């Protein structure tokens, strides 16, 4: 399966997913699709499940991306089960955004209206109406944007062209060519490729070539069917496989006359694959279909295993071996994914077992428990690990929220789930999505549930982050009344702190000091460490940039020390940033720079995008004080792009906004409008990685392959130890088969690693890998291997 790497639209290289398996055939479809873009700005690839629409779209986009100034961008919609989240998915996966929380479509249009790019929207059929509205707006207002969509049906927008993705070319069993001519058929080449991955010693011979060609005819050239069939060569000969599939199709397609023949074929193959499994594996397949996106073994065991004949570990190994489950490796973590078509099939079978409701509830309960653990363990040393884990589980968290929000008996679980995740939503800059879920859960749950107070408080906080005081203040007031009625002292302390922050945002320092100070005392009395750290940071900042900077610095130092004692990064980073703010007002630019750079290093570990936006802005002010005007302008550009990405703005914080505007005006005056705009736009176009490197003044040098276009924003991703080992063997002229034998791993695994190396280094050939390795050995170029 293709996994989507999320990136920002300002990074000119695009964010196309790596194509981790060899690509066979489709030259005609690629050429046709590219030709249609000369006539139409929207092209939709349509066809049944498993026919290869996604991989074709990725290949077309990879071929065309250099034709667009802003390259090609990929948005995966497969795991959305709510059309209302389509715009949020686009904003998140492209790194777009803006201060407005209510005008997501307008935000996308505004940010893309001057772009020249190819936007790939993958798996649109289940949210097609929302996708069509988005695409229609892009066509109206964004003249440089082209859209390539994949769907089982067309979008139905004006000016759309459609390419029906056909099955791969298959032989005619009545007129088979000579055995040595089998390679003329793309379906046969694909089968041979997958067969060798499953059984490395597989070879096409004069004895089995006709059976091979007849088999590919039976499979109707469907790539997914070919994948499923090829792995059966581990237990059957090619001739046996051909005979059995021919028999099964005659039997299984009877009675399905209403479905198109090629859909009958795929369904028959999936049916056969399913029926060949042991009952343990069948039930595990059905149960694991409740997962959205990928999942790990622990989740599978908790959700799909019940100690009643379902051995999940054994079932997972079996289903991976039979190409039902896709195995994905990210560093030391292994995750699994059901291809979309096989997941739909599994959900049908789950219904036949009568287990749909029970499995969805178990799925929801597991991820609610995971979210509760995250909230309970957040103040501790594993914050980066938690953020990474929840990023992997984001699709499952959405699915769990959807189930909990829709159930009359799961309202409390829904409220706990959405509020336990509030730190995660904020760090990821998913403020609008957080508000979407909070609004839905609060609207659909009983007014008597005790969890409502915290949900209202968190809802008010996200409204505040987006400058929506019209929603934040009434919500805070209602939550305060409810907390008082319930006698919830901890929530009353949090609500007092938020009222204090509102006052601070509105430049009312005395009231902010009073409320934040009172909250700090309450948190200390109740032993609420998270609230104590937040209050120390808030009160230190309010006092520090107000009339008592020494007291402010003492409070911030206490916050830094307390968080360090617990191995905590989040509040430590904000306290370091706040310390820089105070030092700036005392004309101690060097001290301020050290503090804010430390804040930025910590924020990078958490990928805390709101925090990074604050730090980049502050570093621009410091550069201004140091009379490094070009650096200051560029840093303001980087922070501007990130403010947009998290849909916030400096203007939401009155004291901060005034200083921001003053520095911006003075930097612009010092450079002149033309030079300022040039540096500012350069900053806006930086990738997040490059922006933080630039802000920290880290030097990275990359050897660019001959003939590659210059791109100051592109840096190589680090190679893993295994990838570096394989790169060394590639440089020696070894084939994938040689490497597999040398390392005692599957040839298909080697192919995946080689493709990852090409993608990470932005290369297109093995010769470039060899040149890069040679450069590493002579010291020419950055060492991007993992340490």
TrEMBL record:
InterPro entries: AAA_22, HTH_77, P-loop_NTPase, Sig_transdc_resp-reg_C-effctor, TPR-like_helical_dom_sf, Tscrpt_reg_LuxR_C, WH-like_DNA-bd_sf
Domain called HTH luxR-type: residue spans: 712-777
One Pfam family linked to the record: AAA_22
Gene3D superfamilies attached to this UniProt entry: P-loop containing nucleotide triphosphate hydrolases, Tetratricopeptide repeat domain, Winged helix-like DNA-binding domain superfamily/Winged helix DNA-binding domain
Organism superkingdom: Bacteria
Name the record gives this protein: LuxR C-terminal-related transcriptional regulator
Species the sequence originates in: Saccharopolyspora mangrovi
Lineage, highest ranks first: Bacteria, Bacillati, Actinomycetota, Actinomycetes, Pseudonocardiales
